[in-house]
Amino acid sequence: MLGLTIRWSLADADPGVEQRLATFVAETSHARFTDMAGLRHKTWRCVPGQWFEGSYVFASDEAREEFQRTFTETADQSPGTRIIGCSPILVEACDIVAVAEGRDGFVAVARA
What superkingdom heads the lineage (predicted)? Predict the structure, then answer.
């Protein structure tokens, strides 16, 4: 499987940025990526005060390459960059070795 990680540093971000990011994901970003062609799934992750990232799994090399290319071209104006106040510190393609679904199942929600 074809992964992509995009990470921003929160080290110098304003207080409360994590809540603003969570609100943006719940109100806007989750809907944008739900049912996106070429995307298997996206996970948003955050370690408060340290980093915020999007972790993607794509269906094809072409889908990942196109998304990475278009994101990289506009990264300085992306919503994450505008909210956090700095450009991503990492845009990295990777291979996803495996995904397991646990007994309690997968839940696709904007906010838990």
Answer: Bacteria
